[in-house]
């Protein structure tokens, strides 16, 4: 299955986008993910950044247990944390989780969490993104000869095909012109067919 990078981003950002449009709320990337479901954060480890993500109460308890802080999940004080009305409790939990990660490496945490069925995510920097094994194996990045910037590395779109070359403002390629002509020709032919059908039906 091919999924374009843009489609993935739009799908992942749909909830924050709608929250702003309908309620004027600007949720941060490390806010909680729903009333009572727990809190999600991006936290620093000894070797990089890890993303902690929970969507349900069951996942919340699993996360707290994995970090040896089951007491947080059982504390009624934190039972009603909500991303649409963030308060100081989120920062209290962040501090507790950050302390629990002290001295642990990001790769070790990621794989240990996977075995415990806890949803953690790697948060690579720009350099690490280009070196991720899945990206290398799928050819996610492709060299593109840009008319101004020169040769640049860009994500493929979709993932298994080279990206399309975008024209700069004011430029039109012969390929695009031929495509437009083909579309108009097809539309005109279809219009003529419908006209003939209508005339013949009379």
TrEMBL record:
InterPro entries in the cross-refs: CoA-Trfase_fam_III (IPR003673), CoA-Trfase_III_dom3_sf (IPR044855), CoA-Trfase_III_dom_1_sf (IPR023606)
Top-rank taxon, per record: Bacteria
Pfam family, one: CoA_transf_3
GO MF term (any one): catalytic activity
Protein name: Uncharacterized protein
Organism: OM182 bacterium MED-G24
């Amino acid at each position: 299955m091919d999924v374009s990078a843009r489609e993935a981003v739009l799908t992942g950002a749909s909830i924050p986008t709608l929250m702003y449009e309908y309620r004027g709320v600007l949720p941060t990337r490390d806010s909680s993910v729903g009333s009572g479901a727990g809190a999600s954060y991006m936290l620093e480890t000894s070797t990089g950044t890890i993303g902690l993500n929970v969507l349900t109460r069951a996942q919340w308890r699993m996360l707290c247990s994995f970090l040896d802080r089951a007491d947080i999940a059982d504390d009624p004080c934190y039972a009603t944390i909500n991303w649409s009305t963030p308060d100081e409790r989120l920062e209290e939990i962040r501090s507790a989780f950050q302390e629990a990660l002290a001295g642990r490496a990001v790769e070790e945490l990621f794989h240990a969490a996977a075995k415990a069925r806890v949803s953690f995510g790697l948060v690579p920097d720009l350099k690490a993104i280009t070196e991720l094994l899945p990206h290398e194996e799928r050819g996610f990045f492709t060299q593109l000869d840009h008319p101004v910037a020169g040769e640049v590395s860009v994500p493929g779109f979709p993932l298994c095909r080279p990206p399309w070359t975008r024209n700069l403002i004011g430029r039109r390629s012969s390929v695009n012109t031929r495509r437009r002509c083909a579309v108009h020709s097809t539309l005109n032919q279809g219009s003529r067919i419908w006209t003939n059908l209508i005339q013949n039906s009379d």
